[in-house]
Predict the 3D structure of the following.
Amino acid sequence: MIEITVLGNGRVGGGLAAALTRTGHDVTVADRSPGAAADAARRARIVINATPGAGSLERLVAIREELRGKILVDVSNATVDGPDGLPADLLYPGSSLAEQLQQALPDTQVVKTLNTMLYTVMTAPAALTQAPTAFLSGNDQEAKRIVRGLLADLGWHTEWITDLGGIGTARAAEAAVLFVPHVIRSSGFVPFAVSIAR
C-alpha cells in the first residue's frame, strides 16, 4: 500500500483515485485550492497531478515544500484550447509541462505518463481491442520503477509500458495531444490511446 494524493477531482483525477483505491492504496483527493493541495501532498509518498495543465505549473510551485522528496506523477497536458474547447496548440512549444515542473521542482522526482489516451483508458487499458502503450519519461529510475508498479495495479501489462528515457522525452509524449481533437471529431468520445505497434 502506498499513500497517494491525487490533485484534481475531475474525470481524470476521480477515475485514477477510485481505481487506485480499489487496488488497496491509501488515496486522498485534493481539490485545486492551495491549502487542500498542500495538506494532502504533505502526507503522501506519491502525488498525481491531474489538474488542468494550463495552470498546473503555478499550482504545483505553490506547494514546492510539500512536494520535496516526493514522486510527482504528471498525467496532464498543457494546451491552448480552441473555440470548441479542444486542444489547439501546446502551451510549452519546444518543451513540455513535465520539463517545466522538473525544472521548477528540482527536489521532486517528476514522472510523465498516461497522457496519450482518453481518460477512461488510464484505468481500463484492456478494454481496447488493441494493446495500448503507456509511456514513461523521467530522470529518476527508482521513481519510474515505482510508477510502473502503479500502472500494473491499474491493469497495464509490462509489455504495454515503454520507458522513453529522461524527462526531456516528455515533450514527444505531450505533443501527441495534438491528435486528440482530430480523433474526437472523427470518431467521438470513444476510448482510444496512442500505441506503438511492434
